[in-house]
């Protein structure tokens, strides 16, 4: 009885913040408890703990992951909102799969992915001429025999000064090579896990901003301590209007669809912000590839240019 009275007094005092209290403490389960008998009574209802209609939605986005709970536990993350006028920026919890967001971060695989992404954009433009491309040198410089000199057929031979270059660099050559499929997938899971363990991965409801001003988004990132660079990821490439306009003039805040997520972009930005739908899509695709029978057999052969 004392506990119920204290709870009612607490809610009367902080009635303006009931939405937050109801989400965090789940006070809605106390509305049918009778203070006289400490039992449930359908007819008894307290006005102080009346549950608003907004709390009818599920507070925890749970997933029935097929994992061994004795070995590893599923991870939990706050679901935040981008509306600064809300009573609390934390509006719920989401359960994340440990194989995607709690994998052991292989720094060597992350480094291989980063180097691979840097090199496949590089094109070698250095160019040297062969002996047939150098101007002149058509006539034989001296007779083949009789003078005691070495045999030469052209003054543009690589043996001569001003001649062509043997086995020199030729434009345009690429440094592209195909990284094995397993390392590409493990690179994504390792980077996501490292971001999550460092508290640099945030989950939001959606990317709906109440304002299209760039100052609003910069102030939001500063209040949330998201760092100087932020990457927003959604499950579609059609982003909301306000956040598209707000990020247009901010070079260190970028938008990306979920199918373009890569290791280089996650390392380049200090904070990674995923929508709930994007997080579920990432889990779906990565778990599919991690559990496929030919996971370690794909793209193991060296790429032939």
From TrEMBL:
Region annotation Disordered: where it falls in the sequence: 131-151
Listed GO biological process terms: translation
Residues of the signal peptide: none
Keyword entries, A-Z: Mitochondrion, Ribonucleoprotein, Ribosomal protein
Biased composition annotated in UniProt, kind: Basic residues: 137-151
Taxonomy, superkingdom: Eukaryota
UniProt cross-references to InterPro entries, sorted A to Z: Ribosomal_uL4, Ribosomal_uL4-like, Ribosomal_uL4_dom_sf
Pfam families per UniProt: Ribosomal_L4 (PF00573)
Gene3D superfamilies: 3.40.1370.10
GO molecular function, one term: structural constituent of ribosome
UniProt subcellular location: Mitochondrion
A single GO cellular-component term on record: mitochondrial inner membrane
NCBIfam families: rplD_bact
Family per similarity comment: Belongs to the universal ribosomal protein uL4 family.
Protein name: Large ribosomal subunit protein uL4m
Source species: Homarus americanus (American lobster)
